[in-house]
Design a protein that fits this description.
44% helix; 6-stranded parallel sheet; Transcription Termination Factor Rho, Rna-binding Domain, Chain A, Domain 1; binds magnesium ion; alpha/beta; 13% strand; Rossmann fold; 2 domains; 8 helices
Protein backbone atom coordinates (compact mmCIF):
# COMPACT_ATOMS: atom_id res chain seq x y z
CA UNK A 1 0.00 0.00 0.00
CA UNK A 2 1.23 3.45 -0.93
CA UNK A 3 -0.05 6.39 1.09
CA UNK A 4 0.30 9.88 -0.32
CA UNK A 5 -0.99 13.27 0.66
CA UNK A 6 -2.28 15.40 -2.21
CA UNK A 7 -5.22 17.54 -3.33
CA UNK A 8 -5.22 16.65 -7.02
CA UNK A 9 -4.98 13.25 -8.74
CA UNK A 10 -3.98 13.50 -12.40
CA UNK A 11 -4.51 10.31 -14.40
CA UNK A 12 -3.30 8.90 -17.68
CA UNK A 13 -5.79 6.63 -19.50
CA UNK A 14 -4.11 3.92 -21.62
CA UNK A 15 -2.24 1.53 -19.35
CA UNK A 16 -3.48 3.35 -16.23
CA UNK A 17 -7.29 3.55 -15.94
CA UNK A 18 -7.87 1.30 -18.96
CA UNK A 19 -6.13 -1.35 -21.01
CA UNK A 20 -3.91 -0.40 -23.93
CA UNK A 21 -5.52 -3.34 -25.77
CA UNK A 22 -8.94 -1.69 -25.77
CA UNK A 23 -7.62 1.12 -27.94
CA UNK A 24 -5.54 -1.08 -30.23
CA UNK A 25 -7.66 -4.22 -30.40
CA UNK A 26 -11.15 -2.71 -30.16
CA UNK A 27 -11.26 0.99 -31.10
CA UNK A 28 -8.89 0.97 -34.07
CA UNK A 29 -10.36 -2.18 -35.70
CA UNK A 30 -13.88 -0.80 -35.04
CA UNK A 31 -13.08 2.31 -37.10
CA UNK A 32 -11.24 0.37 -39.82
CA UNK A 33 -14.18 -1.99 -40.36
CA UNK A 34 -16.60 0.93 -40.69
CA UNK A 35 -14.66 3.21 -43.07
CA UNK A 36 -16.34 1.75 -46.17
CA UNK A 37 -19.90 2.03 -44.83
CA UNK A 38 -19.19 5.47 -43.41
CA UNK A 39 -17.87 6.91 -46.67
CA UNK A 40 -20.64 5.29 -48.70
CA UNK A 41 -23.42 6.50 -46.40
CA UNK A 42 -22.13 10.05 -46.04
CA UNK A 43 -20.97 10.70 -49.63
CA UNK A 44 -21.87 14.26 -50.56
CA UNK A 45 -22.42 15.32 -46.94
CA UNK A 46 -20.47 18.35 -45.71
CA UNK A 47 -19.12 16.36 -42.75
CA UNK A 48 -17.45 13.87 -45.11
CA UNK A 49 -16.28 16.65 -47.42
CA UNK A 50 -14.51 18.19 -44.44
CA UNK A 51 -12.75 14.84 -43.87
CA UNK A 52 -11.77 14.67 -47.54
CA UNK A 53 -10.43 18.24 -47.46
CA UNK A 54 -8.23 17.32 -44.49
CA UNK A 55 -7.11 14.07 -46.15
CA UNK A 56 -6.22 16.06 -49.28
CA UNK A 57 -3.85 18.18 -47.18
CA UNK A 58 -2.50 15.08 -45.40
CA UNK A 59 -1.69 13.58 -48.80
CA UNK A 60 0.11 16.76 -49.88
CA UNK A 61 -2.38 17.76 -52.58
CA UNK A 62 -3.85 21.19 -53.27
CA UNK A 63 -7.33 20.01 -54.21
CA UNK A 64 -9.34 16.79 -53.98
CA UNK A 65 -9.36 16.61 -57.80
CA UNK A 66 -5.62 15.92 -57.64
CA UNK A 67 -6.20 12.47 -56.18
CA UNK A 68 -9.88 11.82 -56.89
CA UNK A 69 -9.44 11.39 -60.65
CA UNK A 70 -12.63 11.71 -62.76
CA UNK A 71 -12.32 8.20 -64.23
CA UNK A 72 -12.05 6.46 -60.85
CA UNK A 73 -14.62 5.33 -58.29
CA UNK A 74 -14.26 8.14 -55.76
CA UNK A 75 -15.92 6.31 -52.89
CA UNK A 76 -13.58 3.35 -53.33
CA UNK A 77 -10.53 5.62 -53.71
CA UNK A 78 -11.31 7.39 -50.42
CA UNK A 79 -11.99 4.08 -48.64
CA UNK A 80 -8.78 2.46 -49.96
CA UNK A 81 -6.73 5.53 -49.05
CA UNK A 82 -8.08 5.73 -45.49
CA UNK A 83 -7.73 1.99 -44.84
CA UNK A 84 -4.18 2.13 -46.25
CA UNK A 85 -3.34 4.99 -43.88
CA UNK A 86 -4.72 3.02 -40.92
CA UNK A 87 -2.75 -0.09 -41.89
CA UNK A 88 0.45 1.93 -42.23
CA UNK A 89 -0.20 3.71 -38.93
CA UNK A 90 -0.02 7.12 -40.62
CA UNK A 91 -0.49 10.03 -38.21
CA UNK A 92 -2.74 12.27 -40.26
CA UNK A 93 -5.29 14.90 -39.30
CA UNK A 94 -7.95 13.81 -41.80
CA UNK A 95 -7.65 10.20 -40.72
CA UNK A 96 -7.91 11.13 -37.03
CA UNK A 97 -10.90 13.31 -37.80
CA UNK A 98 -12.75 10.51 -39.60
CA UNK A 99 -11.88 7.93 -36.93
CA UNK A 100 -13.14 10.37 -34.30
CA UNK A 101 -16.53 10.66 -35.98
CA UNK A 102 -16.84 6.88 -36.39
CA UNK A 103 -15.93 6.34 -32.73
CA UNK A 104 -18.41 8.99 -31.65
CA UNK A 105 -21.20 7.17 -33.51
CA UNK A 106 -20.05 3.89 -31.95
CA UNK A 107 -20.06 5.22 -28.38
CA UNK A 108 -23.41 6.93 -28.87
CA UNK A 109 -25.03 3.81 -30.34
CA UNK A 110 -23.64 1.64 -27.54
CA UNK A 111 -21.57 -0.51 -29.93
CA UNK A 112 -18.43 0.83 -28.26
CA UNK A 113 -18.13 0.81 -24.48
CA UNK A 114 -14.94 2.12 -22.91
CA UNK A 115 -12.89 -0.35 -20.90
CA UNK A 116 -11.92 0.41 -17.30
CA UNK A 117 -9.96 -1.85 -14.99
CA UNK A 118 -12.22 -3.27 -12.29
CA UNK A 119 -10.63 -1.15 -9.58
CA UNK A 120 -10.75 2.11 -11.58
CA UNK A 121 -14.32 3.32 -11.01
CA UNK A 122 -14.37 2.37 -7.28
CA UNK A 123 -11.07 4.20 -6.76
CA UNK A 124 -12.27 7.31 -8.59
CA UNK A 125 -15.43 7.32 -6.45
CA UNK A 126 -13.39 6.83 -3.26
CA UNK A 127 -10.97 9.63 -4.08
CA UNK A 128 -13.78 11.96 -5.14
CA UNK A 129 -15.68 11.24 -1.88
CA UNK A 130 -12.47 12.13 -0.01
CA UNK A 131 -12.59 15.55 -1.65
CA UNK A 132 -9.86 14.98 -4.23
CA UNK A 133 -9.79 16.94 -7.46
CA UNK A 134 -9.61 14.37 -10.31
CA UNK A 135 -8.21 15.27 -13.72
CA UNK A 136 -7.18 13.42 -16.88
CA UNK A 137 -4.08 13.95 -19.02
CA UNK A 138 -3.97 11.79 -22.14
CA UNK A 139 -2.58 12.01 -25.66
CA UNK A 140 -6.10 11.22 -26.90
CA UNK A 141 -7.98 14.45 -27.65
CA UNK A 142 -10.16 16.01 -24.93
CA UNK A 143 -13.20 15.25 -27.11
CA UNK A 144 -12.18 11.57 -27.29
CA UNK A 145 -11.52 11.47 -23.53
CA UNK A 146 -15.03 12.76 -22.88
CA UNK A 147 -16.57 10.18 -25.20
CA UNK A 148 -14.54 7.51 -23.43
CA UNK A 149 -15.48 8.36 -19.84
CA UNK A 150 -19.00 9.34 -20.88
CA UNK A 151 -19.61 5.81 -22.23
CA UNK A 152 -17.67 3.47 -19.97
CA UNK A 153 -18.45 -0.07 -18.79
CA UNK A 154 -19.91 1.47 -15.63
CA UNK A 155 -21.70 4.32 -17.38
CA UNK A 156 -21.05 8.05 -17.53
CA UNK A 157 -18.21 9.10 -15.21
CA UNK A 158 -17.64 12.60 -16.56
CA UNK A 159 -18.99 14.29 -13.44
CA UNK A 160 -16.02 12.95 -11.47
CA UNK A 161 -13.49 15.02 -13.42
CA UNK A 162 -12.86 18.72 -13.07
CA UNK A 163 -10.59 19.00 -16.13
CA UNK A 164 -9.18 17.15 -19.13
CA UNK A 165 -5.83 17.85 -20.78
CA UNK A 166 -4.43 16.58 -24.09
CA UNK A 167 -1.41 17.34 -26.26
CA UNK A 168 -2.68 20.86 -26.93
CA UNK A 169 -1.30 21.52 -23.41
CA UNK A 170 1.99 20.03 -24.61
CA UNK A 171 3.77 16.70 -24.92
CA UNK A 172 3.36 14.29 -22.02
CA UNK A 173 7.13 13.93 -21.89
CA UNK A 174 7.81 17.66 -21.40
CA UNK A 175 8.11 19.18 -17.92
CA UNK A 176 6.54 22.43 -19.15
CA UNK A 177 3.26 20.59 -19.78
CA UNK A 178 3.03 19.56 -16.12
CA UNK A 179 3.93 23.08 -15.00
CA UNK A 180 1.04 24.39 -17.10
CA UNK A 181 -1.32 21.82 -15.57
CA UNK A 182 -0.18 22.70 -12.03
CA UNK A 183 -0.86 26.37 -12.76
CA UNK A 184 -4.30 25.46 -14.08
CA UNK A 185 -5.00 23.41 -10.91
CA UNK A 186 -4.14 26.48 -8.78
CA UNK A 187 -2.19 24.36 -6.32
CA UNK A 188 1.47 23.79 -5.69
CA UNK A 189 2.76 20.99 -7.96
CA UNK A 190 3.61 18.98 -4.81
CA UNK A 191 -0.14 18.73 -4.13
CA UNK A 192 -0.62 16.78 -7.38
CA UNK A 193 -0.13 13.02 -7.89
CA UNK A 194 0.34 11.97 -11.50
CA UNK A 195 -0.28 8.30 -12.33
CA UNK A 196 0.94 6.81 -15.63
CA UNK A 197 2.44 3.66 -17.15
CA UNK A 198 5.19 5.57 -19.00
CA UNK A 199 8.37 6.36 -17.02
CA UNK A 200 9.33 9.30 -19.28
CA UNK A 201 6.00 10.94 -18.45
CA UNK A 202 6.53 10.38 -14.73
CA UNK A 203 10.04 11.84 -14.97
CA UNK A 204 8.70 14.97 -16.68
CA UNK A 205 5.97 15.36 -14.04
CA UNK A 206 8.47 14.82 -11.20
CA UNK A 207 10.75 17.49 -12.67
CA UNK A 208 7.77 19.87 -12.45
CA UNK A 209 7.47 19.00 -8.75
CA UNK A 210 4.59 16.52 -8.88
CA UNK A 211 4.40 13.27 -6.95
CA UNK A 212 4.28 10.28 -9.28
CA UNK A 213 3.05 6.69 -9.28
CA UNK A 214 3.86 4.11 -11.94
CA UNK A 215 0.88 2.05 -13.12
CA UNK A 216 1.73 -1.59 -13.76
CA UNK A 217 -1.09 -3.36 -15.58
CA UNK A 218 -1.33 -6.56 -17.65
CA UNK A 219 -0.31 -5.76 -21.22
CA UNK A 220 1.75 -2.68 -20.36
CA UNK A 221 5.30 -2.41 -21.67
CA UNK A 222 7.90 -3.68 -19.19
CA UNK A 223 9.69 -0.91 -17.30
CA UNK A 224 13.47 -1.24 -17.07
CA UNK A 225 14.34 0.58 -13.87
CA UNK A 226 11.06 -0.21 -12.17
CA UNK A 227 12.57 0.08 -8.67
CA UNK A 228 13.20 3.76 -9.30
CA UNK A 229 9.43 4.41 -9.11
CA UNK A 230 6.73 3.86 -6.55
CA UNK A 231 4.29 1.65 -8.39
CA UNK A 232 0.86 0.04 -8.08
CA UNK A 233 -0.74 -2.89 -9.89
CA UNK A 234 -4.21 -1.72 -8.86
CA UNK A 235 -5.62 1.51 -7.46
CA UNK A 236 -6.60 -0.50 -4.40
CA UNK A 237 -2.93 -0.23 -3.46
CA UNK A 238 -3.00 3.57 -3.49
CA UNK A 239 -4.38 5.70 -0.68
CA UNK A 240 -4.45 9.45 -1.15
CA UNK A 241 -5.23 11.56 1.89
MG1 LIG B 1 -0.50 5.51 -20.77
Amino acid sequence: MIELSAQVILLDIEGTTSSIDFVHKTMFPFARERVSGFVDKNWGESMLEECIALLTKDLGHETAQDWLKPETDHVQTVVDTVVGMIDNDVKATGLKHMQGIIWKEGFHSGELVAHLYEDTAPALARWKAAGKDLRIYSSGSVAAQKLFFGHSVVGDLLDLFSAHYDTTTGSKKETASYEKIATDCRVDAREIVFISDVPAELDAAAAAGMQTVLSIRPGNAAVENVDHYQSVGSFEELQVT
